[in-house]
Design goal:
The chain is mainly α. The chain has 12 helices and no strands.
Amino acid sequence: MTSAKGSLAWALRVTVPVAMGYLPLGMAFGAYSVSLGFAPYLAPLTALVVFAGSIEFLLVGLVAAGAGLAQIAVTTLLVNARHVFYGFSYPTRLLRSPLAKLYGPYALTDEAYALITSGVRPTTERELMLIQGVSHLYWVLGAAVGAVAGGLIPASWDGFDFALTGLFSLLFVGAITAATQRTRILVAALASIGVGLLLPHDLFLLGAMLCYALLCVLMVKRPRTHRGAPAPESGV
């Protein structure tokens, strides 16, 4: 199989970093989905149709808990709102065919975006679609393997219900370590948790996320200034 740029072998090679994340995380999603009582085929089907990474963990959890459609929709919007900003540097000029124009934005994930904008930098529609398509395949394959493996694990084994909490805890630790305003972020997170605890149990996640999003917007609008230094004037 040729490894020339734009070939399938080339796409498999350049997306190895994506595979290193998608395959094990997809397997965790598949096993987690089965542990909640969903049929094994639903994990790879969800990975194929939804393809939204961390929100899929939330999705199966919310569905299993009987959450309403509005709650699921708002939660998905809050978690994946960052993708709106990816469009500013995503190479939409390469998308020529109607299918590519639909699939390109749909299959735009964090890892694919990083690869496209700062790593491989595709120059043709075929290269772009191969990168995103192969990345999508990794996620579906991981979910399928995890669903099968999860079905073989005895029901007496505990811990899968903590998978989502563990995943987001690790993501939070990584994010807070790299942040420059750790104190303000921690205060906002604790305040949001407090607000969520005041709400009914089924609205905890939605209320806490809305509160945190609002506090983040306020922090951006009123950035911290150095002591004794005036706040920067807004331009016209």
